[in-house]
């Protein structure tokens, strides 16, 4: 389709088009003929016919009511008829792959003029390509699927597989051997937890909360037990298709009667008389990706205590959608296991040793959530800084109010502290074995997750106050604030509730107290 040629117009010419039948406006040096749009304007016709709007520059009024992305939509682009002579647009929107110039919108290591001891040139090149991919491929699908509730598009999953993003989301390890990571930017043996942190934070930046879980969040927490505790035969049979995005897996631990109390699980696994199979009965609840998973990493009560078993979808396995406060694109499920027969070869780890399998998995799961939480805090800071600059109250920018600046100070401080603590822990992970991490970092990660989601809830509350009514409206200027305020509680609960994790951190510290110290 040929591009429409835009006219060069003077402001005097535009001013002549100020009637009901012939209505033009100027927004950021661009001229729009809204004569055919006026009847569809959500705010009514009278707003457009105001003498300060009709035929005039409506830039300030427009940006006090609408997000810039409205102008980027094709149905509104067609109303553009020209530009003002000698003037250029000055308002920049989201450029795919670009870094934000808003203060504190990027972590320090990406901010111009700042430095970091943690990131190499390779990390920076990697981040650039990852962001470009998420901005161009993932973000459009995230917006669409969060709205319609359908599972993430297979085309996106396939494109992620081409770059080995599914494999990289599992962290460093032997599963990366021989893979072409992000088009060859990083070698498998050089991939570290900071590379994974980059993926996770760019993922959080470019998606919405339900979609973020829907885009195989279940794999991130359900596959590690298979990689770390499954037999070589089991791994060879199921892992390739999962990392290729052809099959899906989830972690099925939580039940209606057992959440943080893992040892209180009631789903049972009993061996057959010949000892070759498990017979599993019970229910699981709030299971991410459960509605479309092919495999389930299931925590079961067994004769020896607690055992983790990989269950394949088949006879006796039933999944139902659970509607929660975020989008159904996450595939949150209620799962019923009714006399499900599973080969004992699908046991993950030792029989009765399931608590070690799950607890060792918790560290990585919670660290991943910390990465996303820290990045989301920063995205809210960016939204608020933009809003307080363009919003006018009492004839002045909103940030002229001291109470607003105080809220911003709290938001920025929380975002910076969460990121810095996260990077310190990530550095420790890069220099510790898996077993050392389990021993040394369980408390640290638990504290960080509890702190980060607590910060998130405080920031969500403050952001709503900054945006006012727009912050509780699912469309328009404050839609991302409303979304964050509605969904931050998922991070505060999933992977361990805030209070439970804070207590875990203290108990870990008390366990390490030397016996020969006194005041």
TrEMBL record:
Residues 6-85 form the Cytochrome b5 heme-binding domain. One of its GO terms (biological process) is fatty acid beta-oxidation using acyl-CoA dehydrogenase. Transmembrane segments: none annotated. Its cofactor is FAD. The keyword NADP does not apply. InterPro entries: Acyl-CoA_dehydrogenase, Acyl-CoA_DH_CS, Acyl-CoA_Oxase/DH_mid-dom, Acyl-CoA_Oxase/DH_mid-dom_sf, AcylCo_DH-like_C, AcylCo_DH/oxidase_C, AcylCoA_DH/ox_N, AcylCoA_DH/ox_N_sf. Pfam families: Acyl-CoA_dh_1 (PF00441), Acyl-CoA_dh_M (PF02770), Acyl-CoA_dh_N (PF02771), Cyt-b5 (PF00173). GO terms for cellular component: cytoplasm. Gene3D superfamilies: Acyl-CoA dehydrogenase/oxidase, N-terminal domain (1.10.540.10), Butyryl-CoA Dehydrogenase, subunit A, domain 2 (2.40.110.10), Butyryl-CoA Dehydrogenase, subunit A, domain 3 (1.20.140.10), Cytochrome b5-like heme/steroid binding domain (3.10.120.10). Keywords: FAD, Flavoprotein, Heme, Iron, Metal-binding, Oxidoreductase. The lineage of its organism: Eukaryota, Fungi, Dikarya, Basidiomycota, Agaricomycotina. This is Peroxisomal acyl-CoA-dehydrogenase. It comes from Macrolepiota fuliginosa MF-IS2. GO terms for molecular function: acyl-CoA dehydrogenase activity; flavin adenine dinucleotide binding; heme binding; metal ion binding. Belongs to the acyl-CoA dehydrogenase family.
């Amino acid at each position: 389709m040929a591009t429409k040629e835009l006219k060069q117009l003077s402001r005097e010419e535009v001013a002549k088009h100020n009637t009901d039948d012939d209505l033009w406006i100027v927004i950021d040096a661009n001229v729009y003929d809204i004569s055919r749009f006026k009847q569809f304007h959500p705010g009514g016709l009278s707003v457009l016919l105001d003498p300060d709007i009709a035929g005039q520059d409506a830039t300030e009024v427009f940006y006090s009511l609408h997000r810039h992305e409205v102008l980027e939509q094709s149905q509104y682009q067609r109303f553009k008829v020209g530009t003002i002579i000698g003037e250029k647009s000055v308002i920049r929107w989201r450029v795919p792959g670009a870094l934000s110039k808003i203060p504190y919108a990027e972590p320090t290591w990406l901010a111009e003029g700042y430095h970091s001891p943690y990131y190499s040139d390779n990390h920076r090149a990697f981040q650039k390509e990852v962001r470009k991919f998420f901005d161009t491929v993932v973000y459009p699908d995230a917006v669409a699927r969060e709205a319609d509730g359908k599972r993430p598009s297979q085309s996106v999953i396939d494109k992620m597989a081409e770059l080995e993003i599914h494999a990289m989301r599992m962290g460093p390890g032997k599963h990366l051997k021989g893979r072409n990571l992000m088009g060859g930017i990083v070698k498998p043996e050089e991939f570290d937890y900071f590379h994974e942190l980059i993926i996770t934070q760019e993922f959080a930046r470019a998606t919405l909360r339900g979609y973020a879980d829907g885009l195989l969040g279940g794999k991130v927490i359900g596959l590690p037990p298979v990689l770390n505790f499954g037999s070589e035969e089991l791994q060879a049979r199921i892992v390739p298709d999962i990392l290729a995005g052809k099959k899906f897996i989830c972690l099925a631990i939580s039940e209606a009667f057992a959440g943080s109390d893992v040892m209180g699980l009631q789903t049972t696994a009993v061996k057959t008389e010949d000892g070759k199979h498990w017979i599993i009965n019970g229910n699981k609840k709030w299971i991410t990706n459960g509605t479309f998973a092919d495999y389930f990493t299931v925590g079961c009560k067994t004769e020896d205590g607690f055992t983790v078993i990989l269950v394949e979808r088949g006879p006796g396995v039933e999944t139902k959608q659970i509607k929660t406060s975020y989008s159904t694109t996450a595939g949150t499920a209620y799962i019923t296991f009714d006399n499900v027969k599973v080969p004992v070869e699908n046991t993950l780890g030792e029989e009765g040793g399931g608590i070690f399998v799950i607890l060792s998995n918790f560290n990585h799961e919670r660290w991943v959530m910390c990465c996303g939480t820290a990045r989301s805090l920063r995205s809210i800071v960016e939204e608020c800084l933009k809003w307080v600059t363009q919003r006018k109250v009492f004839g002045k920018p909103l940030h002229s109010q001291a109470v607003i600046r105080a809220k911003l100070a709290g938001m920025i401080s929380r975002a910076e502290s969460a990121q810095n603590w996260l990077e310190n822990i990530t550095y420790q992970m890069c220099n510790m074995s898996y077993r050392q991490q389990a021993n040394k970092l369980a408390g640290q990660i638990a504290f960080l997750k509890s702190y980060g989601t607590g910060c998130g809830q405080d920031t969500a509350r403050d952001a709503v106050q900054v945006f006012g009514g727009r912050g509780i409206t699912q469309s328009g200027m404050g839609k991302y604030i409303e979304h964050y305020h509605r969904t931050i509680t998922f991070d505060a609960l999933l992977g361990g509730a805030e209070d439970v994790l804070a207590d875990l951190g203290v108990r870990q510290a008390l366990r390490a107290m030397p016996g020969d110290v006194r005041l």
